[in-house]
Amino acid sequence: MNIKLFDSEIKVMEVLWKEGDLTAKQLADILSEKIGWNRNTTYTVIKKCISKGAIERYGNNYMCKPLITEEDVEYFETKELINKIFKGSKVKLFASFLNREILSDEEREQIKKLLDENE
Questions:
Q1: Beta 63-66 vs 22-23: how paired, if at all?
Q2: pLDDT in tens, 71-96
Q3: pLDDT value for 92
Q4: 92-108 as b/e: b if 16+ CB within 10 A
Q5: What does the pLDDT read at residue 99?
Q6: Read out DSSP for 22-75?
Q7: What's the distance, Cα to Cα, between the start and end of the chain in Å?
Q8: Percent of the chain with pLDDT strictly greater than 70
Q9: Rg of the Cα trace of the chain?
């Protein structure tokens, strides 16, 4: 699913992915404690997520349910990054990262396993 979420919207989604369906009030309480948002800020961001199709609101007590998964967002954001910065080249993405990072043996094995599974 191709939905562009801003950082504030991702914060709301992260709570829903972790906790499951919550009321708007519960979301506001959690985000108030976690990052200091007031209730109006949370409600505004929830409305934006609803209008983008990322959240569905249902029931009398304004239950919020995520309609997209964390994996959907990771995929879309990664694809956007590759297209924007690396002109669509996955090889350039990996080369840029690997030229500046040292991978542990365990990380190398995990990457090899992923590559083998995707052949």
A1: antiparallel
A2: 999 999 999 999 999 999 999 998 99
A3: 93
A4: eeeeeeeeeeeeeeeee
A5: 87
A6: EEHHHHHHHHHHHH---HHHHHHHHHHHHHHTSEEEETTTTEEEESS-HHHHHH
A7: 24
A8: 99
A9: 18
